[in-house]
Amino acid sequence: MTALVEGDVVWAIIGGSLAAWIVISAVIAFKSALGVVEIFGWLLRSWFGRILMLLLWAESGWHLFTQRP
Amino acid sequence: MAPEDESDPTTPRERFGHLFGRSRTRPIAVSAAAIGLATLAWWEGAQHAQTAAAQASIAASIAAIVLSGVILGAHRQQQASGPWLSDAGRVVSSRESWRWPAAAAALLWVLLFGAVLGWDLFSFLRRSQEFPTLSYLTGRVTRFHLGRSGLYLVWLVVGVWLILAHRRTGSRQGRP
């Protein structure tokens, strides 16, 4: 088991805040269309946004599964 | 940001049902796909990063998803890229778009993603065990067989969702 370090605590705070906001924005469903569901729905409307998301997905997978020791 | 089409289906059954048809063989096809994915994920979990096998399997996964996306997405995008970009520019530059609560929501997104990127960059530059990067944190999960398998499965499912979600259903006629 790895001991908890200062950086872990900061990551936990950032991750918790991000997760909370994602849930809140999805549940509240802002009329402004800036909730997480609306943002992804908008990004995936066209090839441009979809390819952009696929590039991010591919790059993250390549990094996580082939470059992380 | 343009509103969703009113004809846009909302339930998973409506979105993905046409992929598997309505025949009696559908449960068999879905089960076979699930077993195949689980087996692939378990095998991937046994691989080690920076090996030829890991690189080949991840490259093949990316190629399969992207190719499937091109085939399944042809003429099924809700909007052409040009008008989509124009709409995005118009919405961003419009004063109406930046009133409460949109402005608050946008600010929160910027702050949170800024925090992720900023803290990751800070941790990367410090190069200290006291400040792990996001990549290092995920390495704590992927070094275990089950962790690597699980994360690979989640990543694959996200990829499948990215190629199938929010496509136009119904007729394949016309563009985009």
List the helices and strands and how they pair.
The complex is a heterodimer of chains A (69) and B (176).
Chain A: H1 6-28, H2 36-43, H3 47-67
Chain B: H1 12-20, H2 26-45, H3 52-73, H4 81-93, H5 102-126, H6 134-142, H7 145-164
Helix pairs in contact in B: 2-7, 3-7
Short description:
The complex is a heterodimer of chains A (69) and B (176). Chain A is an all-alpha fold and 69 residues long.
Structure, explained:
The complex is a heterodimer of chains A (69) and B (176). With 69 residues, chain A is mostly helical. Chain A has one domain. In chain A, 75% of the residues lie in helices and 0% in strands. Chain A is flat and about 45 Å long. The model of chain A has no long low-confidence stretch (mean pLDDT 87). Chain B is mainly α and 176 residues long. Chain B has a domain at 12-49 and 79-160. Chain B is 67% helix and 0% strand. Chain B is built from seven helices and no strands. Chain B has helices at 12-20, 26-45, 52-73, 81-93, 102-126, 134-142, 145-164. In chain B, α2 packs across α7 (145-164) and α3 (52-73) packs parallel to α7. Chain B is flat, with a radius of gyration of 21 Å. The two termini of chain B are 18 Å apart. Chains A and B meet through α1, α2 and α3 of A and α3, α4, α5, α6 and α7 of B.
Which features does this protein show?
heterodimer, A: about 70 residues, mainly alpha, 3 helices, about 75% helix, flat, B: about 180 residues, 7 helices, about 65% helix, disordered N terminus
* Unreliable runs of chain A: none
What spatial form of chain B do the alpha-carbon principal axes imply? Answer: flat
Q: Count of helices of chain B?
A: 7
Structural classification of chain A: mainly alpha
Rounded to an integer in angstroms, the radius of gyration calculated over CA atoms of chain A is 16 Å
Major protein interface: A-B, 44 and 63 residues
What is the radius of gyration of chain B computed over CA atoms, rounded to a whole number of angstroms? 21 Å
Give the N-to-C terminal Cα separation of chain B: 18 Å
Helix count of chain A equals 3
Task: Give the helix level of chain A as a range of percent.
Answer: over 70%
Name the helicity range of chain B. 55-70%
Write down the secondary-structure element order of chain B.
Answer: HHHHHHH
